[in-house]
Amino acid sequence: MSDVRKVQVGEVQLAYRVWGEEDAPPAVLLHSLGEDGEDWRGVVGRLAGTHRVYAPDQRGHGLSDWPGAYGFERWRDDAIGFLEALGLERAALIGHSLGALAALLLAAERPELVDRLVLEEVPVPLPAEPPQEAPEQPAGPQPFDWHAKAAVVAERNVPDPAWWDASAKVTAPTRVIGGGGSSHIPQDHLALLAERIPDARLVTVEGAGHLVHEERPGEFLAAVTPFLAP
What is the pTM assigned to this prediction? Predict the structure, then answer.
């Protein structure tokens, strides 16, 4: 895998990996809760054939800083800062779960930065039914800051209503990818989101569950690579 690099973004230092030719169009991959940039290892080789691929560890994860302060808007702002710090003026943005909601908020807040948007199993910003409870931290060291888990649960239970409204402001062509009925993400929410984003299409990989790019990498890439083609 690629060597880990680091960049200062506001108050945090973010670790990231990069693949592909330097002059290829950029693509930034944002992982899910509890993962890091290595989570994309099964699909990054194919993506790097056409793009310069960047996979950061988001704050509170992996080799990036764990500052104790988390939330989807912080992850959004970190991603904006990451693009700006590396001089990526316009990039394809691919997010999974936590990373997908951060990517959605980024695309709505700073549409000029996003060329294409892929939202894999995004937790649509509608109140969770039933509300979730944050589990207690397991014993022993964890690969991510458990405070991030509590922040995700709290904001999924009561998301900012402005986030749902913001989805209509996305201008980038968008693919919403769902894993079908075996996912814990309500698939009807993904359909609603795809209808709300002006230029979006829902692709369902039935039976993949929440981890589409891990469980069905071939079908994930079949949905994503033609869409990202320069």
Answer: 0.97
